[in-house]
Amino acid sequence: MTATLIDFYINVTALSVWVVYKESSWISAVVWIILLICFGSITTCVYIVQQLFCITCQDPLYLVLLNSRNRAENWYERT
Fold it and tell me: In terms of CB atoms within 10 Å, which of 29, 33, 64, 68 comes out highest?
């Protein structure tokens, strides 16, 4: 049981850092983190699917991993 809880909270911590990095507002980041703590893997799947639906470019990995500010800055540099 202890190992399961430690594993869960390590995963939630890593995913929470990614959510805070990706989200544009603190309120939405906090809501997602609370959902991650309460529902775990289901919330992770929903968040990833939501991020995949936001993809409009040719390089999905680039869009999923970077937050919107970095994408906009990099897009301006490439054009």
Answer: 33
Please give the Cα distance from 19 to 36 (Å, whole number): 10
**Could you state, in order of their start, the residue ranges of all structural domains in the chain?**
2-78
Residue 60, CA distances (Å) to 3, 32, 38, 43 in order: 34, 21, 28, 20
Q: Which of 64, 10, 18 is nearest to 37 (CA)?
A: 10
List all residues 6 or more positions away from 52 whose beta carbon is below 8 Å from its beta carbon: 60, 64
Q: What's the pTM value of the predicted model, to 2 decimals? A: 0.66
Cα–Cα distance for residue pair 19/49, rounded to 1 Å: 13
